[in-house]
Amino acid sequence: MYWCEGDKSEESRTYRVALTSSEVTMLKLFIRWLQHYYGVKEEQIKLRLHLWSNINEKLAKEFWSTNLGMPIQNFTKSWIKPKGKGKRVHPYGICRASISSKKLLEEILSEINNEFTLQHNK
Question: What share of the chain in percent tops pLDDT 70?
Fold first, then answer.
């Protein structure tokens, strides 16, 4: 499994809670976690595909929509990787599930900080 993080600099801060993965199961878990623990509504979750130029965008959206149980309307503009960029090609691209919310981001970061503080003080 590969875990990636980003959006660190204050200048580029988007206040986005997001997970990007080629794994349907990871994204489903992330979406359900947002919905169950934070009350995020389905329509608040945006999906963006990162595709290689040889991938059919319509088929990729149908794949991710069906497998994640999310409507096509939740997809934003796909990002098409320039030719010659990246070695691995996933047949349906990579999907990012995100919600833009400063309040939610701060709540999650606070909970993470509190948990690590509790663990450190034991």
Answer: 81
